[in-house]
Write a structure and sequence with these properties.
homodimer, elongated, eight-stranded mixed beta sheet, Rossmann fold, 14 helices, 42% helix, 382 residues, alpha/beta
Chain lengths: 382, 382
C-alpha cells in the first residue's frame, strides 16, 4: 500500500520532483520548480518598478539559476502588523477578477460592498450575471487588461492557474499593477507569479479560508491569510496593497499575515488531512443509523462537506503542496499503528491461553483466581 | 499493513474464531462463542420461570450444542412498541448496580430521579459516595444479592463483564430476577447471560448511547437501545421490565428497541469507525493552527473526545463486536483507494509529458493550444 506512492516521495508538489530527478529532466522544459523554497528570481529594487512592463517571461530558467536564486524574505506570521487605514487613499479600486466561477463571484460581492469597482473575465459567459450585479464582463483576459485595473485577482482553480497566468498580456497593464491570487496552496502561485510577472508588478498571495457556504452569512471572524510577497514600499503600490487588504479587514475577516511557506506547512497538516479523512470516509458510503452517536454525526457532516468540493480541488491540495505526501504517509502510519495496538492485544490473549493451558491457574469454586480476578479469558485481559 | 491483521480475519470477536479454527480448539474449554448469531440455550417456556433458581451454569457446552441451538427471536427495531405505562406497578423498584464506577453512578442518578431505590456493589469502596447519595453500598456482590433486588444492572467494563457475571451467586436471588447490562456491544452480553443465568431469570440487554459528559444536562432525546432478550409475558417479570425501561423513557431518552445483532452491525459501522478515526488522528498528535478550518476543528474535537475514553473501551468495541474487523478492513481499503486516485493522476501527468515530448503539441505565441488550453503541464491536467 505504502509502496504504491512512496516512489513518488517529494511529488506532493510534482514539479519539485521534476527537478530533483535526473530521469525526468525532459520536464524541465516547461515545469519550473513552483514549490521550491526559493524564489525563481531575485527581487528587483524599487527603481525597477518604474521600468516599462515587459512581455510575458520566457519558460523557466535552467536549474543553475534556481540554485543561485535569492530566498524570498517571509513574514513570521506571529505578529501581523495592523494595516495602516490612514495610508488607504479615498479613490475606489478598479479590481479585475480573472476566472469568474462561484468563488470569483463570491469575492466580488465583498469587493463591491466595500465600494470598489469590479471587472471580470472568464472562459464561460457570465455577461447576464454581471449585468445584474453592476459588473463589467469581458470575454477575454486581453480585453480586461486593456482597461488597466489597479489589481488583478486570479480566481482560477489550482490546476488551471498556471495556464491562466501565462496567458495574461502583462504588457497591456500598468507597470505597477498588483496581481493577487486566492488559491488554497500558496508556494506554487508565489513562485509562479515571481517567475512570470514583470519585475515592477506587485504580488500578494492570499487564501480566504472560507467560501460561498461558510461565508454566506458574512465574513466576520473568518480567517484571511495573506503574504505581501513583493510590494514596493514607496509610490502608490503599497497604498493600493493596503486598500486591497482592507476590503477583507473591513468585512470582518481575521487577518492572518503568514509566509506562503508557513501556510503550506500548516495547511497540509490541517486542511489536507481533513479533506483526506472526508475522502476516505466517502469511500465507505456511510449512512445515518437509528443509533448515531454525536461523534458519528460530525463525521457524516464532514464527509458531506468534503465531497461537495471537486476532486480537482483535493488533488490540487495534494499535488501543489510539497508537504502533502509526508502528511499522507503520516496518516497511513498512524492507521497501521492503531491496527498493531489492536492486534497486539489479541496476541497477548492467545499467549495467555497457551501458557495457562500448559500450567492451569488454580481457581476457587466462585471462579475467582488468587488475585481476585475471574479465571475467564475476557477477565484476564484486565 | 493489511497482512498484519488479515490472518486474524473473523477475530473481531475473538471467541468466534476460537470455534472456527481447529488449531485453537484448546480455547473451547473456557471461551464460549459469545458473539455467535445463535443463542447458547433455547428459550424456556414461561412455566420454567416458576422453577427454583439453579446454581451458575457449567462452562460452555460443546460445539455440537452451539450448532443445534435455537436462534433468539429478535425485534425488527423498525417500530418499537410503546411501553404500557398502565402495566407499570406503583411499587418502586429495588435496583442493584454491580460495578459502581463513573457510569454506574451516572445511571444511578436517573434511577433515583424516577423514585426507585438503588443498591450498589463494587470492587472499589464507594461507601462515602453512596452515603451522600442515599444509596446502600455493599463491598461484595454476594452481600448485594442477599438483598434480592428486583433488577440486577451490570455496569462493569466490556473486558471485565464475563468475570463479573460468572461470579454472581444467582441462587441467592429470586428466581424471576431481571438481569440487564449497559455494554457498548450487545451480542456478547446477550449470549453470556443466556448461557450463565438460570432459566427463569429475565434478560434485558441495553445500550444507553450517552454518558456523564453527553448526558450531563439531561437525557432528553439521547438514544437508549434495548432488547428484551428473555422476559416471561405473564407474572410480574414483564411489569418489572416495563418499569425498568420506563426509567429511561421518563427521563426523555429516545427509546430504540433493536435486536443485539442489529445493534452490533450498526455500531461497528458508526461508533467503532468513529472511535477508530479518533484513535488514528490521536497518533498524528494534531495541533490547533492559526488557520484552522471549521472541518479541522471538528476533527480536533473528535480526537479529544475519543482519547478521553479508555483504550480498553476501544479494544472492547473491536474484540467483542464480530463486525469490527470487517469495518477496519473496509477503512483500510478506502484509504488505499484514495491514495490510488491521487497516484493515478500523477501517473497521467507523467504519461502526458512523455507523449508530448515525443510529439510536441503546436502552440500559438500566447501559449495557447488549438483547443484553447494553455500548453503548460498544469493546465493540461484540466
Amino acid at each position: 500500500m505504502a509502496s504504491s506512492l512512496r516512489h513518488f516521495a517529494g511529488l506532493g508538489c510534482f514539479p519539485a520532483a521534476a527537478f530533483s530527478s535526473g530521469s525526468t529532466c525532459f520536464l524541465r522544459r516547461d515545469i519550473p520548480n513552483f514549490c521550491a523554497f526559493v524564489a525563481l528570481r531575485p527581487i528587483r529594487p524599487p527603481a525597477a518598478a518604474t521600468a516599462p512592463a515587459k512581455p510575458p517571461a520566457s519558460p523557466s530558467p535552467p536549474m543553475e539559476e534556481h540554485r543561485q536564486a535569492v530566498p524570498i524574505p517571509c513574514h513570521s506570521g506571529d505578529s501581523p502588523p495592523a494595516l495602516s487605514a490612514a495610508a488607504v487613499p479615498k479613490t475606489p479600486l478598479r479590481l479585475g477578477i480573472v476566472g469568474f466561477g462561484n468563488f470569483g463571484q463570491f469575492i466580488a460581492g465583498g469587493v463591491q460592498r466595500q465600494g470598489h469597482a469590479v471587472l471580470a473575465a472568464s472562459r464561460s459567459d457570465y455577461s447576464d450575471y454581471c449585468a445584474r450585479h453592476d459588473i463589467r464582463f469581458f470575454r477575454s483576459v486581453d480585453a480586461l487588461c486593456e482597461e488597466q485595473p489597479d489589481v488583478l485577482l486570479i480566481c482560477s482553480s489550482i490546476l488551471s492557474t498556471e495556464g491562466v497566468v501565462r496567458a495574461i498580456p502583462f504588457h497591456k497593464l500598468r507597470p505597477d499593477t498588483i496581481v493577487a491570487d486566492v488559491l488554497s496552496v500558496k508556494e506554487f502561485p508565489r513562485n509562479l507569479l515571481l517567475e512570470v510577472l514583470p519585475p515592477g508588478f506587485g504580488i500578494i498571495c492570499t487564501h480566504p479560508m472560507f467560501g460561498p457556504e461558510s461565508g454566506k452569512h458574512g465574513w466576520g471572524k473568518l480567517p484571511f491569510v495573506f503574504d505581501k510577497v513583493r510590494v514596493t514600499e514607496d509610490g502608490v503600490q503599497v497604498a493600493k496593497c493596503d486598500q486591497f487588504l482592507s476590503i477583507f479587514e473591513q468585512e470582518g475577516c481575521r487577518m492572518v499575515e503568514m509566509s506562503c511557506t508557513e501556510h503550506d506547512r500548516y495547511a497540509a497538516g490541517s486542511q489536507f488531512i481533513t479533506h483526506t479523512i472526508g475522502r476516505v470516509l466517502s469511500q465507505l458510503n456511510l449512512k445515518s443509523t437509528p443509533i448515531n452517536t454525536k461523534g458519528y454525526e460530525t463525521l457524516l457532516q464532514l464527509t458531506k462537506n468534503t465531497v461537495s468540493d471537486s476532486f480537482d480541488l483535493y488533488h490540487g491540495l495534494f499535488m501543489y503542496n510539497i508537504n502533502a505526501t509526508e502528511q499522507l504517509d503520516n496518516l497511513e502510519m498512524a492507521f497501521e499503528k492503531v491496527r498493531q495496538m489492536l492486534s497486539g492485544r489479541l496476541h497477548d490473549f492467545i499467549r495467555k491461553q497457551i501458557v495457562e493451558r500448559a500450567a492451569p491457574v488454580p481457581t476457587d469454586p466462585s471462579g475467582k483466581l488468587a488475585n481476585g480476578l475471574s479465571s475467564s479469558p475476557a477477565a484476564r485481559l484486565l
